[in-house]
Amino acid sequence: MDEKMIVACPSCHKKNRIASDKKDSAAICGHCKAALFSGEVVAVNSDQFRAHQSADLPLVVDFWASWCGPCQQYGPHFEQAAKQMPFAARFLKISTETEPHLAQQYAVRSIPTTLLIKNGQEVARQAGVMSAAQLKQWII
Ligand SMILES: [Zn+2]
Questions:
Q1: Is 67 in a helix, a strand, or coil?
Q2: C-alpha–C-alpha distance, residues 138 and 24, integer Å
Q3: pTM of the predicted model, to two decimals?
Q4: DSSP, res 128
Q5: Catalytic amino acids?
Q6: Domains of the chain listed by start with CATH number
Q7: How remote is the CA of residue 75 from the centroid of ligand 1, in Å?
Q8: DSSP letter for each residue of 103-121
Q9: Rounded to the nearest whole angstrom, what is the distance from the C-alpha of residue 101 to the centroid of ligand 1?
């Protein structure tokens, strides 16, 4: 089998075409050489978001704001889940302060709100803080 998938780089946000069986921690970006599956949460603006949205990894998106207490609480749980499942999904963070139109587009009414996006489409959303374990269960 020679199945390919498109992965947007977490560092330069350019798209990489890789064989599905090369989805491992050694995979690096052909443009900037960053690790493609770093397990880090990636803060994105709308252009960068669209690059990831049109790639093949499911997205877990945290809509947050710097002034929001529960968002600060949620951050470490979100990061922990990202570290634990680097190949299952891309974990993105979107600031509702700098990207208000994205929050509006997705009708985010309270923060933190977490969206699960597959094949470019929202398939689930959850408002409020989740533990890393709850988040993982929710994603799977
Ligand atoms: Zn790159």
A1: coil
A2: 23
A3: 0.96
A4: S
A5: 68, 71
A6: 39-139 (3.40.30.10)
A7: 24
A8: HHHTT--SSSEEEEEETTE
A9: 26
